[in-house]
Amino acid sequence: MALVKDSAIVLRRLDFSETSQVLAVFTRAHGQQRVIAKGVKRSTKTRTGIGIDLLEKGDIVFSARPGKEDRLATLTEWRQRDGYRHLRDDLARMYAAEYAADVTVQLTEAHDPHPGLFDTLDAFLRGLEKLPPADALSTYLWRMLREIGLRPQMDACVSCGRETTDDELLFFSSHQGGAVCRDCEPSVVEKRRLSRETALLLSHANEAVSGRAFPLLDYHLREMMGRPSKLSALVRRAFGVRHRA
Ligand SMILES: [Zn+2]
Fold first, then answer.
1. Residue 145 to residues 32, 86, 120: CA-CA distances in angstroms?
2. 182 C-alpha to center of ligand 1: Å?
3. By residue range, what is the domain housing residue 67?
4. Same-domain status, 55 and 127
5. What is the reported pLDDT for 205?
6. Based on the domain organization, do 114 and 15 belong to the same domain?
């Protein structure tokens, strides 16, 4: 059984039994991994074991059986490196972080490494200490979409290729992959209105994205995942999103 060392961020946590946890972790060099942490919640004389928390970063060692990658790996060591303490006392920050964790679990494949996305996720979680959560989350999602190949095209119609940045009446289709002009819109089944402001905002977005783009990103992710993130409603409420952008 091979031992693997890596950096990891805990994206999902399931209590498995009295003393064990099953975790979905995002590792830097080995992508998403499902690991079982046995005995991790056991208390000692001096310390009450609370296990490994959601959204903490650490150095991980786990054992994986070659050829049995679909099985749970066994966590053998965990040393916390960053607990992102600033998330724990602010609900909007925590919801934003949990939303990012949820969509990252759902849209990345196990054993598919994305070191750049790992670093981006880490920077996002640290950045929540200073940046408004809606801006920080939208920026992370925009970068994630590029990394996993699902970033929509926003400056030209995905159907006819015409530049759309001057259009007042615009649509967005997640499954078509971006903006749709009014001429092509009737032949597209899955679509929603796209405000010129959001289209312009994302057309010009290289790295940082305003939180005003969140409703569209949330819609796109919902379509890509086949259902909304379980954090979607909480995040929308925390961000004060009342209607579709
Ligand atoms: Zn068109």
1. 16, 26, 12
2. 7
3. 1-83
4. no
5. 78
6. no
Question: What's the CA gap between 15 and 72, in Å, rounded?
Answer: 14
Q: What is the pTM of this model?
A: 0.92
Q: How far is the CA of 171 from the centre of ligand 1 (A)?
A: 10
* Separation of CA 200 and ligand 1 centre (Å): 17
- Kindly provide the b/e burial profile for residues 35-58, where b requires at least 16 CB atoms within 10 angstroms of the residue's own CB: bbbeebbeeeeeeeeebbebbbbb
Q: Total domain count for the chain?
A: 2
Q: How far is the CA of 187 from the centre of ligand 1 (A)?
A: 10
pLDDT digits (tens, 9 = 90+) for 84-114: 999 999 999 999 999 999 999 999 998 899 9
207 plus 230 within the same structural domain: yes
What does the block give as tokens for 34?
């499902």
Q: Are residues 38 and 146 in the same domain?
A: no
Contact of 21 with 41, CB cutoff 8 Å: yes
d(CA 84, CA 28): 17
Q: How far is the CA of 68 from the centre of ligand 1 (A)?
A: 47
Task: Give 74's strand partners.
Answer: 36, 63
Domain harbouring 130, CATH code: 1.20.1440.120
